[in-house]
Amino acid sequence: MEEFSTRQNKVSRLIQKELADYFQKESRNLFHGKLISVTTVRVTKDLSIARAYLSIFPTNGAEEILDEIRLLTKQIRGSLGRKIGKQVRIIPSLEFYIDDSLDYIDNIDKLLTK
User: Fold this and answer.
1) How far apart are CA 85 and CA 87, in angstroms?
2) What span, in angstroms and rounded, lies between the C-alpha atoms of 56 and 48?
3) Which of 1, 20, 35, 39 would disulfide-bridge 99, Cβ 3.0–4.6 Å?
4) 18-63 pLDDT, tens per residue?
């Protein structure tokens, strides 16, 4: 398991909070009212890339929503820059992934209850 520095953890939490705010405000307009939660953000050692893991509910159509989010990455990064620009030197590049850990847990739960 990777060891993260205090700085990486602080930047990760800051980005996670701001992305969560962004998706909460924009989900009705941009993402058809889907509930998008930012479950984890991992920042590289040099703080140049932030990988955000998203949980999209309901899960049907999640891949299409992820594609839309990826198309809007530049806009999302700009919004992030306006929010946290004073706190970090460089706004990291954003990468978005689906966090399917809830589906995985749900699947295990179904298997165990059979």
Assistant:
1) 6
2) 25
3) 39
4) 999 999 998 888 888 889 999 999 999 999 999 999 998 888 888 9
Q: How far apart are CA 39 and CA 44, in angstroms?
A: 17
Q: List the structure tokens of 25.
A: 């405000």
Helix (H, G, I), strand (E, B) or coil at 81: helix
User: In angstroms, what CA-CA distances link 38 with 4, 15, 65, 104?
Assistant: 19, 10, 14, 17
Q: How far is CA 98 from the centre of its chain?
A: 8
Which domains are seen in the chain, by residue range? 6-112 (3.30.300.20)
Within its chain, how far is the Cα of 14 from the centroid? Answer: 12
Whether 20 contacts 39, CB under 8 Å: no
| Amino acid type, 43 | V
Using alpha carbons, select from 106, 78, 104 the residue that is nearest to residue 92. 78
